Structure formats: structure tokens, C-alpha cells
Amino acid sequence: MALPATSVTTLERHIIEQERRFPGATGQFSGLMYSLTLAAKIVQKEVRRAGIVNILGRLGRQNIQGEEVQKLDVYAHRAIFEALDHTGHLCVMASEEVDEIIPIPKKFPVGKYVLNFDPLDGSSNIDANVSIGTIFSVHRRVTPEGTPGTKEDVIQPGYKQVAAGYVLYGSSTMFVYTTGLGVHGFTLDPSLGEFVLSHENIQISDDKKIYSVNEGNYHSWDEGVQRFVDYVKTPDKATRRPYSARYIGSLVADFHRNLLYGGIFMYPGSKSKPQGKLRLLYEAAPLAFIAEQAGGRASNGYQDIMKIEPTELHQRVPLFIGTKSDVDLVEEFIQGKR
């Protein structure tokens, strides 16, 4: 008797099928991604429990960025590190929460990949029960295999990424990733304990006109950004204006909404901080890879995020990301072409 057919595709199966499309695949990449999904499940479990255990709130100290470190931030960082440090797939890691690179412990083997990650983006919203997320980026090492990884392996431009993604901890937990073969989203099914394919080959839509930015900073922006925001708020039926304003204040949540519905997310620099707040390696570059694979764009106002050659581990960069037409348009305003 034939077994009934099922249309369920798990994340693990999808990763295997993706890796088979690359000649010479050894299985190391699949193993790395499996470990990332395990870390995501561990973190989401604690996020769900955070309201009833002593894990919310601040630790009373700051990270390398000068920001308050949240208890759940520390937990997420440790969970990701411990899920991946012993696997033999990585040669080095780097985290937004740590000032230097994170070496693989000497007792474990080293592999050919590098992991950069923001363990818990949106941590300022933790106590308010707002959606938060994990962002990750994978590169191939550039130093000799079999040796400990170095900062040179970590500080690579976005166009050299082999994979990038994020995990959204919200009303449901989603794992969204790309290996350069489109963007695919998986939702955690609690009954199975597995991420299952729910959003295949995501493409950023141009149907809705949405802008996402903290307008409280309006008077600190450069004139070009101010004029763009004024433009999108000015009614004009021919260009489907005004745009709708949608801003959560959690990068992963804001980006995820625009990835599904369309629009542009902006975190400009300011007069006092021209490079803005977001980190190139841990936030901007991985999301830029996803945006481009979904048919969108990411720019710092003058250059594609994916083309920026990083010089620092915690380098910051202005970010304009979303629908290609909107990113093209904001560049015109910033560069004085409109």
C-alpha cells in the first residue's frame, strides 16, 4: 500500500537540496546550517519563556557598541556560540556583542566557514514583548584551511557571502535565508518541532508604498533624506503617494514586513553620527544579500551595501533597503539629483 504524499518541506531537507546544486559540496555547509537551526530553536524557547523567568531586563553593563546589554542578549550569544563551536564547520566567529573575533576553542577542529551574527537584534524592545530577531552571515574563510581563523576571515565584503539569513521571534518563529538561490522562509511548527517551508522564493513587491524610519530623528538627518521623506508624504495619485508609514523599531521585524509587503526601511546617518547606528557585518550586509536575492536593493545612499569593503570589525553604515525603485529614488535625493 502506497504511503500518502506530503507537501511538507523541512528546513533541513531544503538545505540539503540547496547544497546539492553546488559542485563539490562536502556537507560541511549543511552541517553548519543544521547547527544554526538548533540554536534558533534554543533561543526561541527562551524568548517564549522570558516573561516567566528571570531573563528579561538589563545586566547593568554595556556592550562594545556602548549600548545596554540585555540578559536575553547574553543568553542568545552563548546559545549560538555553543551550538556551533564544536562542529568543525567554522574557523572563527564574530558577534555584535563581543569586541574582538571569537576563536574556536583549541580542543575542537576548525572548518572552512566563518559566521558573523547579531544574536538578538531589537533588544531594546525585549521587555515590551515586541518581535525581535537573530541575524547571521556566512563566508568562506580566506586563510589556509586547518589553521585558526583570523580577523581577515571575518572582515569580508557582502558580495562574498555564501549564505545569510535571520530568525524572527514573533507571533510565530520564522527562519529566512538565502544561499544565492532565492530567499526562502520557514515557520517553526511546534507540533513537529521543525521549521517547515511556508514562504518559497520570496520577492519584494512594489504593490504597496511603505516607508519605515524613525522620524523623531528628522532634524538630525542630511537635507537629502529629509526631502525624500517629505516627498513620500506628499499626496500625488500618479506616483501612489503618500506612502504609508510603518515603523516598529526592531530591524528584523521592520525588514521582514517590507520583504513580504514591499516598501523601504531607512536608518540614515545623522549630523553627529554620519555613519549611523547599524553594523555592516552583522546587520546591513546579510540583509542586503537577502534583499538583492528577493529583487530589492540595499544602499548607504551612495553605494550598494554588498560592494562596501569593510575595514573594521564593528563598522557602522547608513542603510536604505527594500524595493529597488524606492532605494534608487532615495539615492537620487541624497546625491542631489532630485
Describe the structure.
- Helix content is 28%, strand content 24%.
- The protein is of the alpha+beta class.
- The protein folds into two domains: 11-199, Fructose-1,6-Bisphosphatase, Chain A, domain 1 (2-Layer Sandwich); 210-334, D-Maltodextrin-Binding Protein, domain 2, CATH 3.40.190.
Give structural attributes.
alpha+beta, 2 domains, 28% helix, 338 residues, D-Maltodextrin-Binding Protein, domain 2, globular, eight-stranded mixed beta sheet, Fructose-1,6-Bisphosphatase, Chain A, domain 1, five-stranded mixed beta sheet
Task: Describe the secondary structure blueprint for this structure.
Layout: H1 11-19, H2 28-49, E1 58-62, E2 68-70, H3 71-84, E3 90-95, E4 102-103, E5 113-121, E6 132-140, H4 151-154, E7 161-169, E8 173-178, E9 183-189, E10 194-199, E11 210-212, H5 223-233, E12 244-245, H6 251-261, E13 264-267, H7 280-293, E14 296-299, E15 319-323, H8 324-334
Helix pairs in contact: 1-2, 2-3, 5-8
Short description:
The chain has about 350 residues and is of the alpha+beta class. It is built from eight helices and 15 strands.
The secondary-structure class comes to alpha+beta
Q: What is the residue-mean pLDDT, rounded to a whole number?
A: 91
Residue runs with pLDDT of under 50 for 5 or more positions: none
The domain tally reads 2
Distance between the termini: 68 Å
Radius of gyration from the CA trace?
A: 20 Å
The general outline is globular
- Reading the helices and strands in chain order gives HHEEHEEEEHEEEEEHEHEHEEH
Strand content: 15-25%
Counting DSSP H or I runs of 4 or more residues, the number of helices is: 8
The CATH homologous superfamily of the largest domain is named: Fructose-1,6-Bisphosphatase, subunit A, domain 1
Annotated CATH topology of the largest domain: Fructose-1,6-Bisphosphatase, Chain A, domain 1
What level of helicity do the residues show?
25-40%
